[in-house]
Amino acid sequence: MLDIDQARARAHDIVARATAGGADAADAVFAADASLDVSVRLGRLEDVGRSESAELGLRVFVGQRSASVSTSDLSSDALDTLVERAVAMAREAPEDPWAGLAPAERLLHGAPPLLGLDDGGDVSPEALRDAALAAEAAARDVPGVTNSEGGGASASRSVWALATSTGFAGAYAATGYGVSASVVAGEGGSMQRDYAHHAARRRDQLDDPAGIGREAGERAVARVGPGRLTSGAMPVVFDPRVGSSLIGHLLGAIGGSAITRRTSFLLDALGTPVLPAGLSLRDDPHRPHGLRSRPFDGEGLAVSPVAIVEDGVLETWLLDSAAARQLGLEPTGHAARGIGGGPGVSASNLYLDGGHVPVDTLLAEVGEGVYVTELIGQGVNGVTGDYSRGAAGFRISGGVIGEPVAGFTIAGNLRDMLLAITAGNDLQFRFGTNVPTLRVDGLTVASG
């Protein structure tokens, strides 16, 4: 795989070709990736897969007209053809008054922060096989587990580079490792499945495979023989695995495209409470070894830790440069870029800060309710905030988590739900979005 300097040079080269070929401005993304995946089932090797890719995406501007193209053919002749085609497409595109590169004065200059995203590791297929086998074996050893969907282990390394005609050229590399197990418990019509996984940037920070497997097995066994809930309004407690989805819906509602198109249930919420007082939603692109850490955003802007919500109050939209121009604001450093097309927006390492209620207390205050460990379906309206999703989990009775339950729907409105959150004190940093146990009172639960 190309190193960082070579990746940066690739992106810079195509931008230079574009401006020489008639573009008024241009930016380019180069991405290369190599990954190795091993899967096992019932104690036997099932598959070994290795993939390598290298792609380049180019965006050109002719006045306020733009076009984007991409290729995996990196030969010199192919790149010249790519530039010619992109410039011709841009000249025929409709004008966009908001189009353009990020403000030059906001670009990252100087050395990027050191985030520890690349451990330089080179893992053998045998090592991954052993990790996958250990995870699956530990899951199958849990009493009550009756079958396996398999165990897996993976390792990857990627290099990402961005260059602009305004003088930015940056690149960084990141490694990634993962271990997972998925098993079935119970027999016949009462069978239930569940899983566990862990991902890390550095291999020495990956959880023990056997521990991951045991967690998968215990989760599956706990779900066997689910009962039914009585329909009605009740408190719903969200396990951290699924509670992060509530934050995902909030982010979708404050992204630049949702605001400029006026298609957000939080359209008028800037500067007002969207979470209870005391809770803050923080975004930290500089978290060492973070799964979503990055030294600059998808337009080359410097990034830094920011409170998206501070003490319950929404402090900022998430804006790329085009949306910022349309709103008369500044870009926020949240641009995200793929190989094809222009930037969108994305947060980095998110976490909900300020939860202080012990989980036992949070549950005890429920009395009768439901603890949700799985959400099903996509019944969320981003315009109105109406929320309705299938779910499974466990009955809460007398403030204690009890028997498994399934086949029910939870419903409410996201704006009300977010303001009704009570957050536990069990926040852990394991994923890209991290939340503690969350309770939302008064949701409508309908049993199927």
Automatic annotation (TrEMBL):
<feature type="domain" description="Metalloprotease TldD/E N-terminal">
    <location>
        <begin position="26"/>
        <end position="90"/>
    </location>
</feature>
<dbReference type="Pfam" id="PF01523">
    <property type="entry name" value="PmbA_TldD_1st"/>
</dbReference>
<dbReference type="Pfam" id="PF19290">
    <property type="entry name" value="PmbA_TldD_2nd"/>
</dbReference>
<dbReference type="InterPro" id="IPR002510">
    <property type="entry name" value="Metalloprtase-TldD/E_N"/>
</dbReference>
<feature type="domain" description="Metalloprotease TldD/E C-terminal">
    <location>
        <begin position="231"/>
        <end position="446"/>
    </location>
</feature>
<dbReference type="InterPro" id="IPR045569">
    <property type="entry name" value="Metalloprtase-TldD/E_C"/>
</dbReference>
<protein>
    <submittedName>
        <fullName>TldD/PmbA family protein</fullName>
    </submittedName>
</protein>
<dbReference type="InterPro" id="IPR035068">
    <property type="entry name" value="TldD/PmbA_N"/>
</dbReference>
<feature type="domain" description="Metalloprotease TldD/E central">
    <location>
        <begin position="120"/>
        <end position="223"/>
    </location>
</feature>
<dbReference type="InterPro" id="IPR047657">
    <property type="entry name" value="PmbA"/>
</dbReference>
<comment type="similarity">
    <text>Belongs to the peptidase U62 family.</text>
</comment>
<dbReference type="InterPro" id="IPR036059">
    <property type="entry name" value="TldD/PmbA_sf"/>
</dbReference>
<dbReference type="Pfam" id="PF19289">
    <property type="entry name" value="PmbA_TldD_3rd"/>
</dbReference>
<dbReference type="InterPro" id="IPR045570">
    <property type="entry name" value="Metalloprtase-TldD/E_cen_dom"/>
</dbReference>
